[in-house]
């Protein structure tokens, strides 16, 4: 059964396209990581050499509030230096990614100012994902050796991939993606760690995942003789790898959803719904940033055939769930308390919450459980 579901997915060419394209981003990230880390270290060293103010410690334990930072003299100087090296200083800079008192000692804390939202808890280059590195290269002028047009094209493809409906992309799309990756990777010919990236990407994109299916079928039918045993083992392992790839890609999607940008309201809402539809079950829920109100949250709960979204409102007394009713909803001191409250007691008009669909859950259980999930998702046709 499990294998049959995986086989069904791997027989869907456009789904395997999606999976392989996502895999390429991880290959790219591994190659880019040492380069961006070294480059940022050098950039950080240059900044420190140029300014005595930057070499002195933060005076006020400065902390961004939301996306704004009005820091001490030292942190303001760091802010100016970062903006001076930003390709789009007038665009939104995600100061809330950073802990300014570390700017003096940690080059990666500076790098995070050039990245998409959601980096605040990421400590160190090796914890970053592909879009974080790509955006750093795109926005920071210290990466002048890379043509920003080429990196932007890869970012654009990556965003299309992550928001593709039904987790599928066409062959034409793949061809374009391959070209974009090639052009981008060619910029790094002088970087030793990038030397094999182009080849690995080529291998991944030409890999035929449907060949695993024959092995999976044999396992299901139990029609094995001695001669097939070697094949059996290798297919089994490959199947497990593919399941792991799926889990990793999902983890990234989930991570992005939790910190989705404000401007893309519709696709963000759809992404949340798709994720819960496909990987959750009744009662699965996730908490995400509100796409329309910064600092507010939405609670999304799956109750087939729908994914219900509730806005969480903050008042002086704490948090409550916005409801279309005359009954005043209870207020909880913290978000955690609110969720616990609704998990414990069923409330009329609210879909019951059972399990959070969170990053840990994806990491720990989807790697295994993902294979058990339904491939034919009937609820997706409801919308
Ligand atoms: Zn400061």
Question: How is this structure best described in words?
Answer:
The protein has 383 residues and is α+β, with helices and mostly antiparallel strands. The chain contains 13 helices and four strands. The chain is flat and about 60 Å long. The two termini are 28 Å apart. The model is unreliable at 220-237 and 360-383 (pLDDT under 50). The site of zinc ion has 9 residues, from helix 3. Residues 58-60, 62, 71-72, 74-75, 100 line the site of zinc ion.
Number of helices: 13
Number of domains: 2
Main β-sheet: number of strands, strand sense, barrel status? 4 strands, antiparallel
Derived structural class: alpha+beta
Estimate what percentage of residues fall within beta strands.
Answer: 5-15%
Sheet with the most strands: spatial strand order = 1-2-3-4
Number of strands: 4
Ligands, ions, cofactors: zinc ion
What is the C-alpha radius of gyration, as a whole number of Å?
Answer: 23 Å
Helix content: 40-55%
Average pLDDT for all residues? 79
Low-confidence stretches: 220-237, 360-383
Helix-strand topology string: HHHHHHHHHHHEEEEHH
How would you sum up this structure in a few lines?
This is SH2 domain-containing protein. This protein is an alpha+beta fold and 383 residues long.
């Amino acid at each position: 059964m499990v294998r049959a579901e995986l086989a069904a997915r791997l027989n869907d060419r456009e789904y395997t396209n999606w999976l392989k394209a996502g895999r390429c981003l991880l290959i790219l990230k591994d190659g880019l990581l040492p380069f961006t880390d070294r480059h940022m270290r050098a950039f950080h060293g240059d900044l420190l050499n140029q300014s005595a103010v930057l070499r002195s410690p933060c005076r006020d334990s400065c902390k961004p509030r939301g996306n704004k930072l009005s820091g001490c003299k030292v942190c303001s100087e760091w802010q100016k230096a970062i903006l001076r090296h930003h390709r789009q200083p007038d665009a939104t800079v995600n100061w809330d990614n950073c802990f300014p008192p570390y700017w003096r000692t940690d080059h990666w804390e500076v790098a995070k100012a050039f990245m998409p939202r959601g980096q605040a808890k990421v400590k160190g280059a090796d914890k970053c994902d592909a879009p974080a590195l790509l955006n750093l290269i795109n926005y920071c002028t210290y990466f002048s050796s890379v043509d920003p047009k080429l990196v932007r094209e890869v970012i654009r493809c990556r965003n299309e991939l992550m928001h593709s409906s039904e987790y599928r992309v066409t062959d034409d799309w793949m061809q374009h993606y391959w070209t974009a990756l090639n052009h981008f990777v060619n910029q790094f010919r002088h970087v030793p760690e990038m030397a094999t990236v182009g080849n690995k990407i080529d291998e991944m994109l030409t890999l035929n995942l449907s060949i695993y299916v024959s092995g999976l079928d044999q396992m299901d039918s139990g029609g094995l003789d001695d001669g097939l045993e070697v094949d059996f083992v290798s297919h089994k392992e490959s199947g497990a790898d593919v399941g792991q790839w799926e889990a990793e890609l999902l983890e990234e999607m989930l991570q992005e959803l939790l910190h989705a940008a404000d401007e893309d309201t519709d696709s963000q809402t759809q992404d949340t719904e798709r994720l819960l539809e496909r990987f959750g079950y009744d009662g699965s829920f996730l908490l995400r940033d509100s796409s329309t109100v910064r600092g507010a949250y939405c609670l999304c709960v799956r109750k087939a055939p729908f994914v219900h979204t509730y806005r969480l409102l903050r008042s002086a007394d704490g948090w409550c769930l916005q409801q279309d009713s005359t009954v005043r909803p209870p207020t909880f001191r913290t978000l955690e308390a609110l969720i616990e409250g609704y998990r414990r007691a069923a409330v009329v008009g609210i879909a019951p919450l059972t399990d959070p669909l969170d990053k840990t859950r994806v990491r720990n259980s989807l790697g295994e459980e993902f294979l058990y999930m339904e491939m034919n998702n009937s609820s997706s046709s409801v919308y």
